[in-house]
Amino acid sequence: MPGPHPASVVQLTGRVRKLLKLLLRRQQLPRCLEWRIRIVLQAAKGRANSQIAERLDLDRGTVRLWRGRWAAAQAQIEAALLEGATRRQALKLLATVLADAPRPGAPDTFTPEQRVALIALSCEPPAFVRPPRQSLDAGRTGGRSGQAGHREPHFGAHDSTLWTERI
Questions:
Q1: Per-residue pLDDT tens over the stretch 28-73
Q2: I need a surface site. Which of 2, 62, 158, 161 has the fewest CB within 10 A?
Q3: Cβ neighbours, 10 Å, residue 12
Q4: What residues does each domain of the chain span?
């Protein structure tokens, strides 16, 4: 039957709620991660997606997406905490659950080592390479030393008489 789908149920244990609030207090927390944590905390209070979207000034689709992702990962989070995960491991797991999904597209063509080498190379000043003396002589003399090379005259560039006649 078409119509609105029921929102995914979000239940938080005391430990998970504390960990989420701890993440939320970090100084260097990206804004997108802050919104996702707030979505989960609001959903755990039993609020509807439209209420959460209005409170946080977000799109309802965004709220629905992150509420669903959290609900899908709830069992994994609880299992890790029951196995005795340390605080650091638990925070890392929560950050992983709330992280962006991999972007579609072709895989990277450069390895991280190659990327670092390219960046290092681009930061170096260009090396001045002096061409061999033979190539300079060959260009001026037509390839034969001792003979005058062929040069095209420059009209008007250095001849002041042609320039003054035009004015």
A1: 888 999 999 999 999 999 899 999 999 999 999 999 999 999 988 8
A2: 2
A3: 19
A4: 14-97
**Whole-number Å distance between alpha carbons of 44 and 46:** 5
Question: Per-residue pLDDT for 1 more than 50?
Answer: no
Asked if 45 and 77 count as a contact pair (C-beta separation under 8 A), the reply is no
Q: How far is the C-alpha of 45 from the C-alpha of 49, rounded, in Å?
A: 11
What's phi and psi for 137, nearest 5 deg?
A: -65, -40
Closest to 34 in 3D by CA, of 44, 20, 48: 20
User: For residue 158, with 0-12 CB atoms within 10 Å meaning exposed, 13-18 middle and 19 or more buried, which class applies?
Assistant: exposed
Return d(Cα 83, Cα 75) in angstroms, integer.
12
As a whole number of angstroms, the distance between CA 44 and CA 118 comes to 47
